[in-house]
Design a protein that fits this description.
- The protein is of the alpha/beta class.
- Helices cover about 20% and strands about 35% of the residues.
- The longest helix has 12 residues, at about 30-40.
- The radius of gyration is 18 Å and the shape is globular.
- The model has no long low-confidence stretch (mean pLDDT about 90).
Length: about 200
């Protein structure tokens, strides 16, 4: 193993399942208007996202949520005063659980992989803060999160959980957002350890 790179354990996609989560109530106000009002009350929106990796026959795949507007990483908005790691763990508790209540389902929030900035409310993001932007509207921090060998994901009814191959992000970048397109390079900093289920196990 490469001693200069930290280990990132990957387990087979077949060990994971998804269930439909309770649908969040629909909001009447348009998204841009809600974001503007919240910005006026709380300041810059702070968002955290998780990079969750699994493998399919030894090939790393990233778990993404596919909706009407494209692909996003799991996560969400932080509460005022909430730290990034506390907030991401809160979001993961809403997203990851174990169907067997007698078994502990543990994930681990690891390194900060990248930071993105949104100069406006439309969601367009950059991996740097443009020098002319003095009041960014959103800061997005993307973290490595190591998954347990088995768990269940709670997915909202209006999105689909998909496993996107890293080689697809690299070879067909036009289909994905910039935040996803950068992942193969960011993941290369780690020593990927591919695990298979023990023979004879359930």
């Amino acid at each position: 193993m490469d001693s200069d790179r930290k280990d990132w354990p990957l387990f087979p996609q077949a060990g994971y399942d998804s269930q439909q989560a309770k649908q969040k109530p629909q909001k009447e106000e348009p998204l841009l208007l809600r974001r503007k009002k919240k910005y006026e009350c709380e300041g810059m929106r702070r968002t955290v996202r998780a990079v969750l990796l699994v493998h399919v026959r030894g090939h790393p795949h990233v778990l993404a949520l596919q909706g009407e507007t494209g692909y996003t990483l799991p996560g969400g908005t932080l509460h005022p005063g909430e730290s990034e790691r506390d907030g991401l763990n809160r979001k993961m508790r809403q997203f990851i659980f174990n169907a067997d209540p007698s078994t502990v389902c543990e994930w681990r929030v690891g390194e900060l992989l990248s930071i993105w900035w949104c100069p406006s409310f439309d969601g367009t993001s950059y991996p740097y803060l443009p020098p002319h932007v003095t009041r960014p509207k959103e800061c997005i921090k993307i973290y490595q999160v190591s998954l347990p060998e088995r768990c269940v994901f709670a997915v909202q009814p209006n999105v689909k959980l998909v496993a996107v191959p890293l080689f697809d992000l690299h070879e067909s970048p036009g289909a994905y957002s910039a935040q996803l397109r950068d992942l193969p390079q960011l993941v290369s900093r780690f020593a990927i350890s591919v695990y298979e289920p023990a023979r004879g196990g359930s």
